[in-house]
Amino acid sequence: MSVAQGKSKASKKKAANATKRLRLGLSIMLALLVVVGGKLFLVQGLDVGGMAEAALDNRLRPTVLPAERGSILDANGTVLANSVIRYNITVDQSVNTKTESFKRLENVDGKDELVTVSRDQGISELAAVLGMDVEDVRKSVTGTRTYYIVAKDLRPDVENRVSDLQIPGIFSEGTSKRVYPNGSVAGGIVGFLENGTTGQAGLEQTQDEILRGTPGKRVFEIGADGLRIPVGIDELTPAQDGKDVKLTLNSDIQYFAQQAIQTQADKLSAEWGVIIVSDVKTGNIIAMADTNTPDPNDPGKVAAKDRGVRSVTAAYEPGSVEKPLTAAALIQEGKSSPLDRFTIPPSLVIDGQQFDDAFSHGTEERTLAGIIGYSMNTGTVMAGSRLTRDQRHDWLQKFGIGEAPDIGLPAEAKGILTPAAQWDDRQQYTVLFGQGVSQSTLQTVRAYQTIANGGVMLQPRLIDSYISPDGSEEKVPAKPSRQIISKDTAKQVRDMLESAVTEGEIKEAAIDGYRVGAKTGTSESPCDDGTAGFCGYTASILGMAPMDDPRFIVEVVLQRPKGSIYGITNGPVFRSVMSQVLRTYNVPPSKGTPVRLPQYAK
Amino acid sequence: MSAAAAKNLALPSGPSVQEIEAGLPGSARKARTPLSLVRSAPKKRRAPFVVLCFGMLAAALIAVLVLNISVSTAQYQLVKLRAEQTALTKQNQDLTQQVQNFEAPQNLAAKAAELGMVASTGKGQIDLSTLTVSGDAKPAVKGDSAGAVIAAPAVPGQLNVVPPASSGEPLASRAPAASETASGEKAAAEPETPAAAKAAGPAAAAKPAALNGGTIPAPEQRTPGQ
């Protein structure tokens, strides 16, 4: 019995010891478990230290998906500007320098074989494809840099040939390049880009937002081995390509007009010249030609002052082309009519100011038509003085002088029409014949378009519509039109313009088969460098045809041609451009009898 | 112990349970059932279940493999088609640009002058409604110089002179690594007839100074990569 008791005591002790050890072990394990669990909770649940976020940032790769820049088209869809794929050839110099020879799959005798090509041969082949010197190519592929551009802006077929060479270390990267297939035809209007991305002149600048589109974004997760993690984040916002801009220009007539004005300016050594061709019925600008137009592919070739569009930016004193506007004002106010009789002295003195004509004459009995037809300053002042100062000012304003046309080009001039109260004794009369007021060529064309269109002024339009990437065309609405003069007044002014060609001094503007109305202008041009007085002349001619129902207006302006101004005529240039326009648009020959208002009063 | 063996086993004789219980005090208990061997139920055969499990596993693996293969093949095809699309887009762009270059008015005018064409001076008109011919059309005569030259578009990498109409392979003029301009000889015949088929191979590039009797110099070509 005592043995058994002793036994049980011992075993109890053992048991107690065992239990104690068990408990101790368990508690240690529990403690460790708490530590691990706590840390897990901290890291996973609370993310102390932002490690999950840091890891995600490490994996995330946002890539920008570039949007394709929209094109600029002319009225017939001819591309004036578009973006194309070009390739840069880059080299990993470290790879290429250490590869003395490489194997390439070639087709030898009809069988595909692996041919060993030496590094030198590879370099000479590459130079041949790129059209570069072998030594230059060797220098650019030798070195330790991992990225070096060997050639830029290669066409896709050249890039194909380079890739076929399979030279180790040579890669190609695609870029987008802006190309202007028509070069300097409409070059100033289209404009050009700086750094290949942002518009810097012309429509590329003003329409930059619309042409540019919105780039897209792709965000995905990438592992350390460079492979995309398929089950990670993958968000895609597609890029929205830019819209195309369709213009009202006709690039063939634009070329014709550019060539014509360049020839004329070169022949007469003028500072610059401008031709504008406008559609009377819609106000659409068919051509806007300048001399020395930049080629947007290489705009640096022309001087900075030539990179704008002088048709809208250059404001000058228009001279005699303003006279028909004065006549229109007189007729609309009921103060004169085309056959109204005026007795004009050889030199007019009014309010202490003397006015002379370009040609000397005795006292003449002239009609208003004759005053316009022979471009007489004296007659214009005599007739125009029937208008009050304010009327003279307001009528010029109604015809758009002092109001810039908004066609979407930068730096459009609004001209200078000073308030009537500020006019001095001379200026109040000189504005009647276009001196003492300045306007751009487009403003003059707009004023005449009013006369040609039955008195309704339409704002000139250059941008016809916007074409979205999905092909839908959104026409730019025409700005509201205004009735400036009555239809009848417009007809009478047109008759005077036609008589200027048939009976008056502008016979050189006549075109076979069509009735033409025209007005020449010779104005003194204020000196540009700020010195007082005038330097040189501005010679212009503006005509419309066919007079039975005018459809087109052409204005030719030449700034400071050299030589005697009285011997210079822009008539032939006007004739050739207007004939070309009439021919291009298949205008039927004029019917009816041409108007021949008498220039002298009986 | 098997049942047979159990039958043969002789139990040691001793007092039976009932006798012992009879001798024990307070043995009003029931008699226990006599010991006998319990026949166990036949064991469940697990083999088919295991086979089924393995079979399903194999099937699932094979299905996943097949799926992966088909996805990969589709992926290869996708890559191939994408590459084809890129190549065609590149070619399309290239050809479009060539056409645009040929259509540029300056290049057309230069080519026309090269072919000996002149601007017309007179024109006539046919009125279809009255079937009359108006105007007086005279044959064109070569006037004085054509006037100012608007330079050809300086698009890098484009051939700046329109190549002659050839009866050979249309892309022959784009020989590999050839950057020579291919201006044909001046065709003396009318512009309509492709007499320029006479121009067999590409002639040397016309230098800017050589006007070849015309008034418009051939524009220069820019080499790519410069």
Q: What assembly state would you assign to the polypeptide chains in this entry? A: heterodimer
CATH level 3 topology of the largest domain in chain A: Beta-lactamase
Q: How would you state the average pLDDT of chain B, rounded?
A: 68
What level of helicity do the residues of chain B show?
Answer: 25-40%
Outline the low-pLDDT stretches of chain A: none
Number of strands of chain B: 2
CA-to-CA gap between the ends of chain B? 102 Å
Specify Rg of chain A, calculated over alpha carbons.
40 Å
Through-space gap between termini of chain A: 170 Å
What does the main sheet of chain A amount to? Answer: 7 strands, mixed
What does the average pLDDT of chain A come to? 90
Q: In terms of structural class, how would the helical and strand content of chain B be classed?
A: mainly alpha
The helix/strand series of chain B, from N terminus to C terminus, equals HHHHEE
Question: CATH homologous superfamily name of the largest domain in chain A?
Answer: DD-peptidase/beta-lactamase superfamily
What is the topological layout?
The complex is a heterodimer of chains A (602) and B (226).
Chain A: H1 2-46, H2 51-59, E1 60-65, E2 72-73, E3 79-91, H3 93-98, E4 101-108, E5 111-118, H4 119-130, H5 134-141, E6 148-154, H6 156-165, E7 170-179, H7 187-190, E8 193-194, E9 198-199, H8 202-206, H9 208-212, E10 216-221, E11 234-237, E12 244-247, H10 251-268, E13 272-279, E14 285-290, H11 310-313, E15 315-316, H12 323-332, E16 341-344, E17 347-350, E18 353-356, E19 364-367, H13 368-373, H14 377-384, H15 389-398, H16 427-430, E20 439-440, H17 441-452, E21 456-457, E22 463-467, E23 473-475, E24 482-483, H18 487-502, E25 517-526, E26 534-545, E27 552-559, H19 571-584
Parallel strand pairs in A: 2-12
Antiparallel strand pairs in A: 1-10, 2-3, 3-6, 3-7, 4-5, 8-9, 10-11, 12-22, 13-14, 13-27, 15-20, 16-19, 17-18, 21-24, 22-23, 25-26, 26-27
Chain B: H1 3-8, H2 17-23, H3 47-103, H4 105-114, E1 124-127, E2 132-135
Antiparallel strand pairs in B: 1-2
